[in-house]
Amino acid sequence: MDTASGDERGTTERVLALLGLLQQRQIWTGPELADRLGVTARTVRRDVERLRALGYPVHAGQGVGGGYRLGPGKDLPPLLLDDQEAIATALSLLVGARGAVAGSGDAALRALTKLDQVLPTRLRHEVRALSGSVESFDAGRTPVDAEVLMTLARACRDEVEAGFDYPSGNERRRRRVEPYRLVASDRRWYLFAYDLDREDWRTFRVDRITEASARTWRFDPRTAPDAVTYVQESVASRVYPHQARFLVHASAETVRAQLSASSAVVRQRGSQLCEVLSGAERLDAVLMHVLLLGHAFEILDPPELGTRCRALAQSLLSAGATIAPASDTPER
């Protein structure tokens, strides 16, 4: 056995044990730590310096009531978790990734993939088993399979090809992709990926993906469009047979508060102007959607929508003409 390597492993294990003790209690005296670790007080001081070099703010106090304590730092250093803490953290992040906490889904998923990278196999199985028992009554986001979500997240992180079954018409087909990002909307999770068979960028709803698997074949990342913008435009307009653009006489902030991110893309065009891009099965539906916002607007595209606008206006005028105007004189 390499004695130097053995000594290094012993030091590493001891420093990790010291970190674990400091995380368990607010204050430890030097003799208490030395007794717990089976070393001298001098060794404890050296190990404290090693922790400080790694970014852990270990503070030392003198006199009565003094001792070592782990304080808040400028940056977040690695955390030391035991098995139960790791399982609880993974489950909490999984719930957040599923959308139980508003606005936390993408951050929870990023943290979960980092934890998954170092989680022992025995704990991965336990997290998977327990995740099936975790539910939420929050109906804001469409539920997704936790294993599918994690498989795709790992593939994005590792830059490896992925495959999965996805609906196409009345059947499911195998898709081969280079996965780039997972994007969360207020309603769903989406995978932004390069489709290798169709040789183009695509957006996939994660709740429709089954039999997901990641390969060991790594790919060189392509020059990609912005994932969030691409997915939002796909969801709001490109998936529909008809798309339309409007110039709305209101600030983008005001209009975004009236529309969900999945129903329209809103771009700032001035302090009191914005462009709205949306899609629908019928152009009339898009037109009425913008009309009901209650702001003055202009049609930018397509040209035929102007014809429909005039026809609908005439229909509304005709319908209104059949009803006698209300009298301004109050009834007696």
Automatic annotation (TrEMBL):
Pfam families: HTH_11 (PF08279), WYL (PF13280). It comes from Streptomyces kanasensis. It comes from the Bacteria. GO terms for molecular function: DNA binding; DNA-binding transcription factor activity. SUPFAM superfamilies: Winged helix' DNA-binding domain (SSF46785). Keywords: DNA-binding, Transcription, Transcription regulation. The keyword DNA-binding applies. Residues 11-66 form the HTH deoR-type domain. This is Transcriptional regulator. PROSITE patterns: HTH_DEOR_1, HTH_DEOR_2, WYL.
